[in-house]
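User: Please predict the structure of the protein below. I'd like the answer in structure-token form so I can feed it into my own downstream comparison script.

Assistant: Understood. Taking the following sequence of 402 residues as input:
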Amino acid sequence: MTVTGTSKQWINRADRVVMKTYGRYPLVPVRGEGCRLWDADGREYLDFLAGVAVNNLGHCHPQVVEALQQQAAQLIHCSNFYHIPQQIELAEWLCEHSFAERVFFCNSGAEANEAAIKLARKQSMERFGENRFEVITAQASFHGRTLATISATGQDKVKAGFNPLLPGFKNVPFGDINTLAAAIGPQTCAIMLEPVQGEGGVNVPPAGYLKQVRELCDRQNLLLIFDEVQVGCGRTGTLWAYQQQGIVPNLMTLAKALAGGPPIGALLATEQLASSLGPGTHGSTFGGNPLMCTAALAAMRTLTEGGVLDNCVAMGDYLRQRLLQFKDKYSFVREVRGQGLILGMELDIDGGEIVVAAMEQGLLINCTAGKVLRFVPPLIVSQEEIDQAIDILDRVLATVSV
């Protein structure tokens, strides 16, 4: 599709037909390459949002594009009633590069988390009976927009207006092992956590916390589910975030960057757990189709074979140091935190206007939890691009009046 027309024209057309489920900015992207986007008016932007941590390899990475083009000419979709070679090959790759022995494919992070919740409940019912179904999650967590995943999410704003929510979920403070332990009851079957909370404000747990959670789950016969939808696929500097903790979850969910842009989600599990989801217990029409799996294989191989993870670590350290300079320079900057190339800069003021001002000067970021500027650039970002982003942000922050 060739996009013609100005940004204003496209926005006017959207206002007439598209549901207003997003607070959209007046920006109409039409082309992307690497860490940059161009809008319908030809203006260039440095993209440090990366489709909300989706474009880990940047926009239109050549290897992902080539894989999509070749596969689209052969077979785009077929039913999961049949064996799909591309799906099998991707599942083999994911199992080889993680703790998992089985993979279920879907289309998004919310669907992957739905599958994890269903599997946890069914496995627990089979082992311990029907009254053991509760999943404990963390305050400020985000697990998706379906009824089950907003019930699991630890943010009231996500749940507002959708009562009655599904029973069987409990939220506790993130990083407090004693409160978590006290919340476990006879109905608890699993604990589901993000190793780093993205939407909740780029919250990193205290050192040793996730290892304590693993030990707690082992003692109580609970499943540990890691939601790595945002922080998996290299975002924290290792292929999976759990690898930095010296522990292994029982279940892990993926999506976002798994295919470098195209939509795909996955639930990874051990053989023993996966056996609880037999034929007819779960499914997805589009999950694991040939096109998406081909893109994911290209994206994951590029991520692990091209020095991308090393660049993530190096550039993550560099971006953190550049952001920390603002803490000394501007009184309203409270803290810089995160891992790899998922970083948050917490402010004493609302960050929404800063996001808009940065966009007007050619830098795309976002604000989460009201006061946390979130930086999730492509993992291929260069030092020169970071310097350019910092210069833009510095100019914007200099105009803020407290």
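That's the full token string. The chain has two domains: 7-60+307-397, 75-305.
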